[in-house]
Amino acid sequence: MDSGAPAQHRAAPDLWRLPEVLDVHFRRRHFDPARRVTSAGVDRQERDAIEIEIHVSEPFQIRALGPVLWVGEEALTSAEGNGKNRYRFFSFKPDALKADAPISLGWNTPGAPRTRTRFQYAPPSK
């Protein structure tokens, strides 16, 4: 049945919107058993990583592109959710992360803009 009332349209979500990073924690992580990691189409097993956990103001938009956490010029694309508005990003190349490098967020597509946060990378103690 058609009520005759005009259809109401919702505004489309801004798929490029990124949440604000409220807090960041850096820690070493050991996986046992080893974690499967794929980069450049090659699978390998990794046991050790640097984990960067971020707490954000709201969840990331659900879309085909995943978020990227930038540590300077190093893109971290391996991530998982960790509770409400918390995400863990992993670096399996810890030497590529430079102390005091700025932390930024972006989307996993070439040339996507980055949003710089107020945080900098601090290597976790051994």
Note the topology.
Elements: E1 21-39, E2 42-56, E3 67-71, E4 74-76, E5 78-81, E6 86-91, E7 102-107, E8 115-120
Antiparallel strand pairs: 1-2, 2-6, 3-4, 3-7, 5-6, 7-8
Description:
The chain is mainly β and 126 residues long. The protein contains no helices and 8 strands. It has strands at residues 21-39, 42-56, 67-71, 74-76, 78-81, 86-91, 102-107, 115-120. The strands form 2 sheets. It has a 4-stranded antiparallel sheet with strand order 1-2-6-5, with no helix packed on it. A hairpin with a 4-residue loop joins strand 5 (78-81) and strand 6 (86-91). It starts with 20 loop residues before the first strand and ends in a 6-residue tail after the last strand.
